[in-house]
């Protein structure tokens, strides 16, 4: 038993370090590992060189409906669904793998990642609790994040029908959501 718990602990520390490096908030670390809060805070300081940010996690589904976050969230979530199905790993590992792919994708496109790891994790939890659904765009056929029970008929996504202000000014109008 003692050996097993040591192995388990090493795995949890490794996971916590990986999550911290990807930008996880403390609440995410506490939910996904059984390490103590003090231990997690010490790990966080060691990895990041600073204390974890205080305060509540964002807890509204509305953020995922705004234009650029919706596109980024939909990209992430479709990757997550694929990972969960094909790789058959635990949700947190599917989240980490999908999030790395998402970061790689935005880097290749030269875009700032709008979705933080904590937001991505929150998104998966919203889906699991039935607050969100995916809706298929009637023009491009892609699947996009939507509120649960929103009408699906005639849905057109933000890529096929961008708001008129989108484009040149979209970053200026949506400052740095990735830090939360
Ligand atoms: Zn579309």
TrEMBL record:
<dbReference type="GO" id="GO:1902208">
    <property type="term" value="P:regulation of bacterial-type flagellum assembly"/>
</dbReference>
<keyword id="KW-0805">Transcription regulation</keyword>
<comment type="function">
    <text>Functions in complex with FlhD as a master transcriptional regulator that regulates transcription of several flagellar and non-flagellar operons by binding to their promoter region. Activates expression of class 2 flagellar genes, including fliA, which is a flagellum-specific sigma factor that turns on the class 3 genes. Also regulates genes whose products function in a variety of physiological pathways.</text>
</comment>
<dbReference type="Pfam" id="PF05280">
    <property type="entry name" value="FlhC"/>
</dbReference>
<feature type="binding site">
    <location>
        <position position="157"/>
    </location>
    <ligand>
        <name>Zn(2+)</name>
    </ligand>
</feature>
<dbReference type="GO" id="GO:0003677">
    <property type="term" value="F:DNA binding"/>
</dbReference>
<comment type="subunit">
    <text>Heterohexamer composed of two FlhC and four FlhD subunits. Each FlhC binds a FlhD dimer, forming a heterotrimer, and a hexamer assembles by dimerization of two heterotrimers.</text>
</comment>
<protein>
    <recommendedName>
        <fullName>Flagellar transcriptional regulator FlhC</fullName>
    </recommendedName>
</protein>
<dbReference type="GO" id="GO:0045893">
    <property type="term" value="P:positive regulation of DNA-templated transcription"/>
</dbReference>
<dbReference type="InterPro" id="IPR007944">
    <property type="entry name" value="FlhC"/>
</dbReference>
<keyword id="KW-0969">Cilium</keyword>
<keyword id="KW-0010">Activator</keyword>
<keyword id="KW-0966">Cell projection</keyword>
<dbReference type="GO" id="GO:0044781">
    <property type="term" value="P:bacterial-type flagellum organization"/>
</dbReference>
<keyword id="KW-0804">Transcription</keyword>
<keyword id="KW-0479">Metal-binding</keyword>
<dbReference type="GO" id="GO:0008270">
    <property type="term" value="F:zinc ion binding"/>
</dbReference>
<dbReference type="GO" id="GO:0005737">
    <property type="term" value="C:cytoplasm"/>
</dbReference>
<keyword id="KW-1005">Bacterial flagellum biogenesis</keyword>
<keyword id="KW-0282">Flagellum</keyword>
<feature type="binding site">
    <location>
        <position position="160"/>
    </location>
    <ligand>
        <name>Zn(2+)</name>
    </ligand>
</feature>
<feature type="binding site">
    <location>
        <position position="137"/>
    </location>
    <ligand>
        <name>Zn(2+)</name>
    </ligand>
</feature>
<keyword id="KW-0862">Zinc</keyword>
<keyword id="KW-0963">Cytoplasm</keyword>
<keyword id="KW-0238">DNA-binding</keyword>
<feature type="binding site">
    <location>
        <position position="140"/>
    </location>
    <ligand>
        <name>Zn(2+)</name>
    </ligand>
</feature>
<comment type="similarity">
    <text>Belongs to the FlhC family.</text>
</comment>
